[in-house]
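User: Watch each token:
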Amino acid sequence: EHEQQRHYDRLVEDYEAHYDDAASRTYRERFIEEPLLSGLKLAGSQVLEGICGSGQTTSALLSRGAAVTGLDISEHSVRRFRERWPEARVVRASILDTGLPDDHFDAVVVVAGLHHVHPRLDDTLREIHRILKPGGQVVVVDLLEHDREDFRVQMGQHWLGFTMDRLDGLLASGGFEGHRTRVLNPEPQARGPTLVMAVGHK
């Protein structure tokens, strides 16, 4: 985790520039945010954006009426999140030990963050389960398993993505019920690994 903190403390501005340009925003809206948020009742809900970076999913959550809390271990990412989204709350902490209260959030979303957690993925899902209200949902969007070692190194990833079975197993080990996974169909010209979405209920 400290390695990840140092990595994103160094790269937060480059990462933001890469993922927040017009083309990236359009792609994210169509192929990530629509499926990510379609099953969530966000208006008036308490939502944690886990491993939030500077807040690439925050606008979509806020625009749908959610009360958003961002969480990230990187000091620089937290500072940028606070600057960009003053109407949201942000906490600097590990997703493994958030320090947040039990049964507090209606939903937790983690977009392209789980592949940075090493090696305690099971602990991550158990912590998310703890802070969710009964009946709350976790939604994870991450990379489908791939063999792009260059991409892994460039982006500071610990995992080369996940199979659907692996994500399903992680949700089960975290105590989630009714979990399901599916591949998100990308734009044909999209570069980079395919994405997969997993949903679980407390």
